[in-house]
Amino acid sequence: MRVRHSKLLALIGAGILAVITLVACGNGDATANTASSAEASSAAESTVAASSEVASTETTAGLSGSISMVGSTSMEKLANALSEAFMEEYPDVTVTAEFVGSGAGIEAVTNGTADIGNSSRSLKDEEKAAGVAENIVAIDGIAVCVDPANEVADLTKEQLTNIYNGTVTNWKEVGGADEPIIVIGREAGSGTRGAFEELVDLKDACKYANELDSTGAVIAKVASTPGAIGYASLDALDDSVKALSLEGVEATAENIKAGNYFLSRPFVMATKGEISEQNDLVQAWFDFVLGDEGQQIASEVGLITVK
After folding, report:
1. Torsion angle of the four alpha carbons 257, 263, 269, 274, in this order, in degrees rounded to the nearest 10
2. Structure confidence at residue 7 (pLDDT)
3. How many CA atoms lie within 13 A of 68 on its CB side?
4. CATH number of the domain that residue 105 is part of
5. Please, which pLDDT band fits residue 45 given cuts at 50, 70 and 90?
6. What is the mean pLDDT of the chain?
7. How far apart are CA 210 and CA 52, in angstroms?
8. How far apart are CA 194 and CA 201, in angstroms?
C-alpha cells in the first residue's frame, strides 16, 4: 500500500509542476499571469486535498479482518455500540460478539476461540495465572431494583445482605408493606452475580427464588413480580423497575465515580496476553475503545469512563 501511495503522490506532484510550468510559460500580461497563478494555486490545493483524501481512504481500507468477542450479557449494550462505531470507521472489519456470561468469555479467550473475553467482574487469580490480561475499559454500577409499586426507597448494606441471605423475608421488616420478598438473581457464572455476591460478602450464599440467565430477564421478572428484588447493570435499567438507594446514596454515575456507591465493578475486555502482544487489528480495537471516541460511547451508554 505504501508503494502505491508513493507512486500516487509522485504523479500528483508531477501534475502540480506541470500546471505551474504552463502558467509560467503563458503571456507576459501581469493580470493574466496573476489570474493564471491563482488558478494554478487553486488546482494545486485541490490536488493536494485529493491526495490527502486518497491517503486517508487507503489507511482506513488497510485495516481489515475480524474480531471475535464472547462474554458478559451485562456488557451487551457497550459492546454493540463500540462494534458499530468501529465498523463504521473501518468498513473492512467485522466485529462479532456473543453474550453468554463472563465465565464463558474468559474460558473462550483462554482456549483461543475468541480474541476478547468480555467480563463484568475482575479476573480471578487463576485466570490471570493462565495468561489472561485484565483490560478495564469502563466501570459499571450494579443497581438494586424492585417493582415500581414497592414503597421501600432505600436499604442499608446490612438490610440488603440479610434479604439475599434469607434472614429478612418480608418487606415490612425493612419499612415496606406486609409482603413476601421474592429474591431474583443471575445464574452461576454470571459476572454480575459474582460481583454482587462479592460486594455484599455473600459468595455462593444467596437464597434465590429465581436464577435467570440475562440482565434483561432479571429486569423483566422484577417488573412483573410484586415483592420482587433483583440486581442489574446500571446502564440496563429502564422505567419498568425502580432503583433503590443504598446507604442513602443513589445509583448514579457521579456517585460511583466519587466512590460513594458501594455496588460497582469493572467492565473488562480480557485478552490472552497483554494488548501489545495482540495482532494489529485487536490493538487497533483497544486504541479505539480506550481513546476519546470509545470512552465517549461508554459514557453515552451510562458507564463510568476510565480515561
Report:
1. 80
2. 38
3. 11
4. 3.40.190.10
5. very low
6. 84
7. 58
8. 10
